[in-house]
Amino acid sequence: MSILTLLTDFGTQDTYIGVMKGVIFGICSTVTIVDLTHDVAPQDVVAGRFHLESAYRYFPSNTVHLVVIDPGVGSDRRSIAFETAQGIFIGPDNGVMTGIHDSPIIVAVELDRPQYWRTSSPSSTFHGRDIFASVAGHLSAGVAIQALGSTIEVSSLVCFPELFTVNSEGKQQGIVQSVDRFGNLITNLRLDLNLLECWNIHLPDHILPIQKNYSESGVGQLVAIVGSHGFVEIAVNCGNAQERLGIRVGDRIAIDIKGNR
Amino acid sequence: MSILTLLTDFGTQDTYIGVMKGVIFGICSTVTIVDLTHDVAPQDVVAGRFHLESAYRYFPSNTVHLVVIDPGVGSDRRSIAFETAQGIFIGPDNGVMTGIHDSPIIVAVELDRPQYWRTSSPSSTFHGRDIFASVAGHLSAGVAIQALGSTIEVSSLVCFPELFTVNSEGKQQGIVQSVDRFGNLITNLRLDLNLLECWNIHLPDHILPIQKNYSESGVGQLVAIVGSHGFVEIAVNCGNAQERLGIRVGDRIAIDIKGNR
Amino acid sequence: MSILTLLTDFGTQDTYIGVMKGVIFGICSTVTIVDLTHDVAPQDVVAGRFHLESAYRYFPSNTVHLVVIDPGVGSDRRSIAFETAQGIFIGPDNGVMTGIHDSPIIVAVELDRPQYWRTSSPSSTFHGRDIFASVAGHLSAGVAIQALGSTIEVSSLVCFPELFTVNSEGKQQGIVQSVDRFGNLITNLRLDLNLLECWNIHLPDHILPIQKNYSESGVGQLVAIVGSHGFVEIAVNCGNAQERLGIRVGDRIAIDIKGNR
Fold this sequence. Notes:
Three copies of one chain form a homotrimer. By secondary structure, chain A is α+β, with helices and mostly antiparallel strands. Chain A folds into two domains: 3-156, S-adenosyl-l-methionine hydroxide adenosyltransferase, N-terminal (Rossmann fold, 3-Layer(aba) Sandwich); 165-257, Elongation Factor Tu (Ef-tu), domain 3, CATH 2.40.30. In chain A, 16% of the residues lie in helices and 28% in strands. Chain A contains four helices and 15 strands. Chain A has helices spanning 16-27, 45-55, 127-140, 241-245, and strands spanning 3-8, 32-37, 64-68, 79-84, 87-92, 107-110, 150-151, 165-166, 172-179, 185-187, 199-202, 207-211, 222-226, 232-236, 252-257. In chain A, the strands form two sheets. In chain A, strands 2-1-3-5-4-6-7 form a seven-stranded mixed beta sheet, with helices on both faces. In chain A, strands 9-10-14-13-12-11-15 form a seven-stranded mixed β-barrel. In chain A, helix 1 (16-27) packs parallel to helix 3. The longest helix of chain A is centred in the middle third of the chain and has 14 residues, at 127-140.
């Protein structure tokens, strides 16, 4: 049994996702499909990268991850697939799948072989159906990644700059990269769990120490912890930090060592 | 492995869909269930028909499609199933499944045999669980459609009039039949792809030529194309046409041959 | 083929559910996972209990039901699993799974054996991934419930009081425990279906008889029926009772025998 995950910005109010599954099951009837989420904001490649990064490592290492957040569909952006020790990734070459991997890319291909597409005249607006779903189905059915297209240089892939930064004063500057359903503000700051007690989070009106877990604070209190994604996040115990603080995705967050300056 | 699709207006905030799947898997544990969408507006049979029409042709031809958009549940409207070369369709006889098929109906039955229901005293409000899910499970498990009920005349099925019209001036009048998550306005107008350049879309304040794809226009520009559903749709490149134009489902759209009148 | 249901308050806009499925399939690749709903209001244990109660009885009796509505995650509340003749239930010991079963609990355990967790150092905020999904995967793969932890007394489980009440005047007092997508107000009042015609619902400005089905009333009319969940619910035929009446979850509803007082 092989697993195929889907991550898109298509929402669930239309049949786009259902149609992609129809194409996949028509090629490989035994694959198990898992929806990561389809509620990424339309065309938000940065949020898509965060969601993929949050999820892929919890799947078996032979999983195929299909990502369709594709503002450039129909343009000359490449369609690609690449393989690491942690899975195979398929999607547009726009940065949504790059810079997130603990292990190096073994092989990358451009999906330029129409015999693996649903049709040699794909819709200009729905490569998710006509190219990506079809190719993902063939991969799940056992076709080798090298068969799906021409090998391309790993260094040629579109890659976002790393957002996590350390500035000259010993502080670290990050941003809020996602807000989850509970209003938790998830930064792009990673910290060594053994050194948590050394750091403070600087908010406009607060300085928060980083705690080990929620239960060190009372109900309704602001708390900074290293969340389940491995990033520093700002939460309100049994409450909503976004509503409390008015902080949004993209806002900058600083942390520094306690007592520094 | 057989596939069963679900299309309803039940939403996903309640357990109605989960319950239907419990009934289905209790009868046929090996079927693969695919959600088309459950976010059809409550009781909107026209939108349901659009979504079914958009999706069914991308599934294997032995797929069972279960549609439960059923404002008449508990009344004397019939519960039906019918078979075409492109699949088996189950749902209420209210037009939601009719008039959309490229191939003719081979056989139609009324679901009047309680031995295939979950209970001979079905809930008056949830035939989706007590009749349709159960019958769909038996179909998926290999029961022949003819066993599920009395054969009925295909001509007796409730059928919507075709919405696409050609008027006396050589124009074609259609409506916006759906707005997707991206704000694209999907009409019910189909056009020959080889004659695209001959047609204009008439909006209240715009005349738009029909283009081959988005990339012929700049970011933020209005564009009319034949979308992935095969219908003319009005979009804004990387934007939201519904917000731009204020056009809603049901609004009329006219197209005509360039230079006409 | 075994079935595993998921019921959470995680929503579907993040990858939390996808991640849990990754963990489960990594342990048991052949299980069939069914989403009940993930749109329970954050931390709403009462609504979660209603949804579980509405759904579990429609699944095969060997189904595993995993419930993660867990405001106390990271505190000292217990993680538990228990078995009845109608399935195995896994989740936090906070009342979300108790008091709803037609058949008694056969065995209950505390999930205190880290060898069945994803990691012996679980995230303090995401036991759904690190403990519950992993244990559910092992259960689905055939591990006996007794192996997963120390046996605990059934009487020690956190249990909500029964909300349904009969007052001294022969009336019954209940509450609206859920509002579904259609605006139907679902109470926690159960009635003998053979005695429906004896009862009236008392609303602030209305007295409604309880009817057998919608079709006894006209479109747009208020109606009280015993809904598909088995509870008395208040609906508007082809309309929205919540919008009409302004009644919310938690509001009290009284019924009495016709002619009483």
